[in-house]
Amino acid sequence: MGREDGIKRFDEDDGQSNYKTESCKAVADEYIEREIMNLLIDLILYKPKAYRHLLYNLLNQQVVNLEGLFWKSLFVFLLLDAYRIVFLNWSEEGWGLSMSFSTLILRCGKMLMDLLFGNFMFLCSLLLATKFILGASAGVSWYKDILLAIFITSYFNIFLIAMMVWEFPSSVLFIIDIFVLSSNTVALKVITESSISKCIGACFCAHAVKFLVRSVPSIICQNHRDNSASLLPNDF
Fold it and tell me: What is the rounded average pLDDT for all residues in the chain?
């Protein structure tokens, strides 16, 4: 299913901006005639037809510059994820004026590595899962459509901004991750037209790889620090 598959077209005969089917002339996309608030509500409710309207009608190369939108969406996606990493690091290890400059550099380097390498592995895992789990294989432009859909449908990360104003426990991040995973799953189902179970498996694998890439080094370092501290002589 592509962006220019011809199943919907603009009806110029009656002067109305309705997308209609070629066969029966019925309105193919009901969101053309509805308020944007209805679309937002249905997106939050994970309705596939709302995601289909977003990904195929609103994000149409005849309406927007998809190339520019792709890089802008990637920037926002990384920016919100960077804030998530900083918030987690601050809540777990804390930041203070007593922190040495070398420690600050190491932490910033680790967070940058988590951001870039973690998301690189996430996107690679997602594309591989799309190919092997969903059995989908297409050109570069089709994979870019998938990545753009993932960036756009990670909109639940916008709730991270609220954590700048109000205090929330770090467990809220887990809830946001569940919402993002669910939204990505529906988007992948709409793009690939695969079964929901396969789409859940593909998205879960990609998010799991991202979690492991970020968590395993921290666990190893923590165990190393604990072992080093246990080998130090105790002064009585």
Answer: 78
What's the rounded Cα separation, in Å, for the pair 4 and 215?
Answer: 41
Alpha-carbon gap, residue 162 to 83, rounded angstroms: 12
**Cα 131 to Cα 39: distance, rounded to the nearest angstrom:** 30
Distance of CA 11 to the CA centre of its chain: 34
- Residue 170: pLDDT band (50, 70, 90) is confident
Biggest alpha carbon–alpha carbon distance for the chain: 92
Helix (H, G, I), strand (E, B), or coil: what is residue 35? coil
Tokens of 198: 């396969």
Compute the Cα dihedral for 171, 152, 1, 58 and give only its sign: positive
In the chain, count H helices and then E strands: 8, 2
Report the chain's terminal Cα–Cα distance, integer Å. Answer: 73
Contacts of 43 (CB under 8 A, 6+ apart): 50, 51, 54, 155, 183
Residue with tokens 């990505």: 184
Which tens digits make up the pLDDT trace of 45-55? Answer: 999 999 998 88
Which residues neighbour 162 within 8 Å (Cβ) at sequence distance 6 or greater? Answer: 168
Q: Is the pLDDT of residue 6 over 50?
A: no
- Return all residues near 170 (Cβ < 8 A) that are at least 6 apart: 87, 88, 91, 92
179: its two tokens: 């919402």
Percent of the chain scored above 70 by pLDDT? 75
Name residue, tokens 């990545």: 147
Residue 27 main-chain phi, psi, to 5 deg = -65, 120
Cα(18)–Cα(35) distance, integer angstroms: 14
